[in-house]
Amino acid sequence: MYTVLAIIAAVLFLIAWLINAAEVSTNDVFTSTNVMLVGLALLALHVAGIGSGWAARGRRR
């Protein structure tokens, strides 16, 4: 559960690569560049620690 954003980003990178490699014609919103940028945003959130599941309070005793 800790790497959900990274896995989603990897899937989006794969979709962007497939769109680019197959030269699929898509509309202006769903281009390979836009999909890649969404993947980069999710990867940046993952690296920043967003969605990592760590609580701010931690496990103090």
Automatic annotation (TrEMBL):
| Keywords attached to this entry | Membrane, Transmembrane, Transmembrane helix
| Superkingdom of origin organism | Bacteria
Spell out where the chain crosses the membrane: 37-56
> What's the protein here called?
Secreted protein
Q: Which organism is it from?
A: Streptomyces ambofaciens
Q: What is the lineage of its organism?
A: Bacteria, Bacillati, Actinomycetota, Actinomycetes, Kitasatosporales
